[in-house]
Amino acid sequence: MHPREHRLTRRNLVRGAIGAGAAVGVAGVAAGCQNTTTAVGEGEAGAASAAVRKLVVPRPTGPNGLPLPRPDYSVTWAITPDNAPIKEGLQPEGGTLNVYNYADYIWPGLIKRFEKQYNCQVKIATYNSADEATAKLSAGTVGFDVVIGLSANNMVTLIAQQLMLPLTHSYLPNLAKNIWPALQDPFYDREARYTVPYVVWLDGIGWRNDKISNDIAGMKVPWDIFWESQPWTGKVGILDDQRDALAMPMQRDAMRAGRIPDLNTEDPEIIAKAGRDLSELTKISNVKVDITDYQTLPEAKSWLHQAWSGDMLAAVLYYLPKGTKPDVISFWGPDQGGVVQNDLLWVVSASKKPVLAHAFLNFMLDTKNAYDNFVQFNGYTPPQNTIDAESLVKKGLIPKSISGAVLRPDQFANNQELLALSVEGAKLWQNAWATFKAG
Amino acid sequence: MESRWIWRILAAPGVVWLSVFFLVAMYTVLCVALGNQDTLNQPIPFWNPLDWNVGYLIETLKDFWNRGPFYTVFVRTVVFVFVAMGLSLLIGYPVAYYAARHAGRWRGLVLLLLVLPFWINYLMRMLAWINLLSPDGWGTRFLHTIGIEALFEKLGLLSQDGGWLNGQASSVVIALVYGYIPFLILPLYAALDRIDQRHIEAARDLGASPFAAFRRVTLPLSVPGILAGVVLIALPMFGDYYTQDLISASPRTNMIGNQIDEFARQGSQKTVGAVLTMLLALVLLVLMFYYLRTTRRADLERAR
Amino acid sequence: MLTWLRNPWGRPRFLPLVAGLYILWSVVPVAIAILFAFNAGRSRTTWQGFSFRWFWQDPDLSVFHDDALQGALKHTLVLALISVLIATPLGVTLALGLQRWRGRGSGTVNVLMLLPLVTPEIVMGVALLLLFLQVFTTIGLGTPAQAIGQITFSLSYVVVMVRGRLVSIGPEYEEAAADLGARPFDVLYRVLLPLLAPAILASAAVVFALSIDDFVVTQYLSGDASTTTVSMLLYSSARGAPTPALNALATISLAITLGTLALVFIVYRRFAGAEGAEAVAAGLEV
């Protein structure tokens, strides 16, 4: 899940029969008479490549048999003739640019700046969850030009429906100039053919250092603190997201054993064990499951919480009650083997203002704009080369205790993204989560 | 006479609306529950009953059979609802009785105050409790001062000081009572109000003490009202998920409504969500039809 | 006093005590929540003085200035208005038709009409969600879907209340008018409807209140962030650390509901007198 999905409701829309469902093919419906829980359409793509499967270790696949990108299995998306990039050297169109974004995810001042610079109007429509956005985009009824906020794990579905416009990089000089090299050519979209990054974040631990004096960052396996959190019963929380939460005990086990976990695993044993480990937390410290840590930590309603890095920065920058010093909140994030995630900026293939859309992307990749967005409003780190924790601490913008929440490129490279799973895999994760949630 | 058709024509729009937006909706749940999913994890409903796929239904029932998480949550929900029903009756009956038979000149005011919770947003009422029961809230301090906190801790109903909102089953049950008791009190009041005073007078004339008259006349006559009211609040309680979310948000108090919410709106197994919804509706169908029969009988009686 | 002491558990003493305690328990928490809407500080648990800050004074966070809060309030009222405008006529015609319907089908329709009243909200929510995503995909989720969902469960309330009134009116007026030669349409329009006016008004008020306070169906059928209602906002913010602006929003919403009901009640009394209270009670007995 995306951290911004918590702003209002965590809603995931079920996508209708229009769109990718139809693309899956009529063959699925004909399979009606069997009593089965195998998804319709699953296994059909595989049949054609049975010979291949014999000789190659099978990888989980996504819709229509498309490959699921992994850090060790990067994917280059083809540019097809029926969805061609726009020509170079065109002037940005005027008029209204329709941007689709999470609520409260971009600084309003930045929008005004863009409008002035390009003499246009920007209209922002908001969505509450990635599924909702994907559903609306598939329905194609509203004409969005730019989409902010979806991640790599939504990408395959979008590509499957050819909703993304291949980018023309001559309009995006800031990409090469300012952005972390790793994200200029990410594994989920080699050569950044369809997307550019918006912000990045890390899953870690946020805590009140005035209530908990343990040196969590100095522990051999900081995740252990949750299983030792009995003294702070009632003040401990984990994220209400099945992927982020279940990934935590997996990271803990891996750290103890000195290896790197696969956080996109589909191994039933590992997933089930993670669920059991989380259930232990309920007994140990009556752990809460929510996503309001960006408010409850500053108010000391929660003392120890699994947290998204950007939320902790936001907590320090905007949510502290009067009289509370900013350095009471600490954050630790793993240097490797943990969960890292980034957002995408991309252009909708049916956009009527593609050049202006490209200009918007380039505008967001500009250092000053990204910095202002980060510090004035967002709290989530833009992957800019010149923005780092030290300069922010030196400028007195953030206290040292929270500097771990500003991501470094090496942290991004050595951690893993939570990516789309196959149908079977998704089922395993959800079942483990439901078992934990059932108490 | 042609006037016969006027009434059917008048009723037609409403009937069409309910058929389309209620019956078809229910049928859709059935067809999704007995359908399948595509590789994008989106449900595909199977509209033709001959095509129905009971795979997901069987898997879910197996979970119940094997005492899996659904079973645990369902049992917990039943326990919560029954305890809440019992408490509601314990508190609600005297209140309804007072309003119906002893309020005298205060009756109008009392009725107004009893009806008031209907018009206050349920969530606002819960929000009020979240404020009061937070660690530094007035409610917490009050309960601490009058010793209830200590009592609950001794009874094992509260795990730590000020921890009312930390996944306490007792808090959730009491919140359910608070939320739904008005829906019990009013029908109970109406039923008690309808009891002919002369029955009681007759019993008193025959020498019964006030308490005996109550026990042998009023109470039995109010049983249909009790049953109707109790069923009326049991139905929404079974499907409740937001009370627990607000008052506790802990896996320890997870209810079947939460599981339905989790599966039907998010994740990759929305068919399972539809199956759970269907199963819950079937279980509650018995209650629903019982209630409809008693109200229809009451309606017909009144019409006579 | 002495009689009370001699028999403190005598029912007449015990009952008012229980009833009084219950009413206090029922009403006081909400009163306190409303109180804190006027808190001068940010806390929802520590009283820091009286102020209208969260209603309009605070330039960023008050209900008047915060777009999210305002938007939710507006959307809630829009939905309530749509529900009333459609559910009331639909319900009145259904009530009339159902009450006078003799013969086959009336029993089934009666059950159909009562079913939404006894269906748990989450079942309705899931059913309607799937309906708009699998069947009526052109409507999809959003304001129209939310309105349709609310109308669907409000319909039954209108029917029950109007029918209650029809029953107490009895058939004499219609028969008299028919005897005097009035056409069925005239009977309906000039005799029945005026007699039913109080019940129609009351049921419209009930639909309004139900719509404002609805949560599950509205949440399930909401589309993007612009279709958030007050209930949804209360739910999603309550466990975080919201400011008293949330209390203020809830208070405003409550004031609108109670204000509308009071208005209707006053108008109602002018038309129907004491019968009005009975009709309302009859409707609420469901």
The greatest inter-chain interface is formed by: B-C, 103 and 90 residues
Enumerate the strands of the largest sheet of chain B in spatial order, edge to edge or round the barrel.
Answer: 1-2
The biggest sheet of chain B, with number of strands, parallel, antiparallel or mixed sense and barrel status, is: 2 strands, antiparallel
Q: How would a textbook summarize the main sheet of chain C?
A: none
Q: Examine the coordinates and then state which fold CATH places here, giving the name of the CATH topology of chain C.
A: MetI-like fold
Average pLDDT for all residues of chain C = 83
What ranges of chain C have pLDDT less than 50 throughout 5 or more consecutive residues? 279-286
Count of individual domains of chain C:
1
Helix proportion range of chain C: over 70%
The number of distinct β-strands of chain B equals 2
Question: Residue-averaged pLDDT of chain B, rounded?
Answer: 86
Q: Care to count the β-strands of chain C? A: 0
Distance between the termini of chain B: 25 Å
What's the CATH H-level superfamily name of chain C?
Answer: MetI-like
Helix content of chain B: over 70%
Key words describing this protein structure:
heterotrimer; A: alpha/beta; D-Maltodextrin-Binding Protein, domain 2; 9-stranded mixed sheet; 19 helices; globular; B: 304 residues; MetI-like fold; two-stranded antiparallel ribbon; 13 helices; 76% helix
Characterise the protein shown here:
The complex is a heterotrimer of chains A (439), B (304) and C (286). Chain A has a domain at 202-339: D-Maltodextrin-Binding Protein, domain 2 (3-Layer(aba) Sandwich). Chain A is built from 19 helices and nine strands. Chain A has helices spanning 20-24, 27-30, 44-48, 50-55, 108-118, 130-139, 152-160, 173-178, 181-184, 224-227, 242-257, 268-285, 293-296, 309-318, 354-364, 367-378, 389-394, 409-414, 423-437; strands at residues 96-102, 121-127, 146-151, 196-208, 236-239, 288-290, 304-308, 329-332, 340-347. Chain A is globular. The relative contact order of chain A is 0.17. Chain B has helices spanning 3-33, 55-65, 69-102, 107-119, 122-133, 138-145, 148-154, 169-194, 197-205, 210-239, 242-247, 256-265, 270-303, and strands at 36-37, 43-44. In chain B, helix 2 crosses helix 3 (69-102) and helix 3 packs parallel to helix 8. Chain B is globular and about 75 Å long. At the B-C interface, helix 1, helix 3, helix 4, helix 5 and helix 8 of B face helix 2, helix 4, helix 5, helix 6 and helix 7 of C.
